Fold:
Amino acid sequence: MVSSDPMKIKIDRFGIPPSRCPTIEAVTSLYNLPIKDFILIFDKFDDGQLMDTSKWKLHGNFLNSKTSDIPNDTPDHIMDLIITNRSARIVWLSESTCASKDEHFIWVFSHELRHVEQDMNLVDLKETSKYLDARLKNQMEATKRFRWTQPEEFDADLSAFHTLKKLSASNADRHILELENAAPSEGKYLYTLLKEFSNG
Ligand SMILES: [Zn+2]
Structure:
C-alpha cells in the first residue's frame, strides 16, 4: 500500500495492522522530518541470504540516496525505489522490526528517524565520527571502535530512549535493560551511559 500523501511516501509491504497506526503517528509527530522526498518503508523482506554485516540485515536503516554510498547488496525492490526517487531520504524497517512488540518497534523507528534529523541539521556529527575513528584507530580494534566512535549512533539511541520514555516510561526502563542484557560485553557499558546521560 502506498499512502496518498504527496509529500511523504509510506510504502507498507509488511501490512502494518491498524492497531499500530496510532503508534506510528505518535512517533513521527515527535520528529522534524522533511516535507518532501522522504520515504518510509515497512518491509516484508527475508534477509536470510545476506551477510551479517549487511545494512539490510539490521533492524532498520537510513540512507540519503543523494549523498550516501548505496550498499552493493541492496535488495532490488529497495534499489528500484532509490533509482526512481533520486534525492530521497529513505527510512527502512525490516520485517522482524515490523513484526516485533511495541517497545522494539518504537526504539528502532525512533532511532532511524533521528538519523533523518541528523542528516538534515547535524552534519557535524559525521565529521566528529571521522575524527574519533582516525584518532582511536591504533588503540582499539575495528569492531569495538564502531560503537565508541560514532556519536550519531549514541545520539540516535538516546533519542530512541527518550521517545520510548515519552510514550511509555515503564516500557522504556524495561526495554533498555533487555538491550543491556542482550548486548555483547563491550556494548553493555553503552546502555549504562545512555541511562546516566538521560537521567543526567
Ligand atoms: Zn543507527
Remarks:
- Residues 2-100 form one domain.
